[in-house]
Design a protein that fits this description.
Layout (H helix, E strand, L loop, with lengths): L3 E5 L6 H11 L4 E4 H6 L8 H15 L6 E4 L5 H11 L4 E7 L2 H7 L4 H6 L21 E4 L5 H14 L6
Parallel strand pairs: 1-3, 1-4, 2-3, 4-5
Helix pairs in contact: 1-7, 3-4
């Protein structure tokens, strides 16, 4: 069965890193990275409208259904994630909350986005100017402050195996 892992969390929480490492383990996994989709889009801002548009675009790309997809996207609003679940199909949608504190995300920020946001060079930046809405009931929580990349990927793989979404 083709599934969609919807990885959501603060910027620099580890979403893209986990998606890339997971793709090493699942050969036919397609990765849809929010930054990459945004770079190809006409809307590159972090306004609520820009975020809504980017989330819809990614959900529509992910809904194909022919093979497994891992979405790596901040997806900061519960409403966006609910809409994505409806677009993709509730049975195929797996919400994975990448849990990480704001101070740790700021420490991991190699692009300096948080510093720019704090200097008001980036408006509406999630975690600084705009709140991230933590999922109420995600299917899986990966705490990237407590788990390293390998442990997080293994927890994801175990979830997928236990739910008969992958074999091995």
């Amino acid at each position: 069965m083709a599934f969609v892992l919807w990885m959501t969390g603060l910027p620099c929480s580890g979403k893209t890193t986990l998606a890339k490492k997971l793709s090493d383990k699942i050969s036919n996994l397609t990765i849809l990275d929010g930054d990459e989709v945004r770079a190809q889009s006409s809307s590159s801002d972090f306004s609520r409208e820009g975020i809504n548009e980017n989330n819809r675009k990614v959900a529509n790309l992910a809904k194909d259904g022919s093979k497994p997809v891992c979405v790596s996207l901040i997806s900061p609003f519960r409403k966006n994630r609910e809409d994505a679940r409806k677009i993709i199909d509730t049975k195929r949608f797996i919400e994975v909350y990448i849990k990480c504190s704001l101070p740790t995300c700021e420490e991991r920020d190699v692009k300096g986005m948080y510093k720019k946001a704090r200097r008001n060079e980036i408006k509406d930046f999630i975690g600084v100017n705009t709140n991230y809405e933590i999922p109420y009931n995600p299917d899986l929580i990966l705490d990237t402050e407590k788990l390293n990349v390998e442990e997080s990927v293994n927890k994801l793989l175990l979830y997928l195996k236990n739910n008969n979404l992958i074999v091995n």
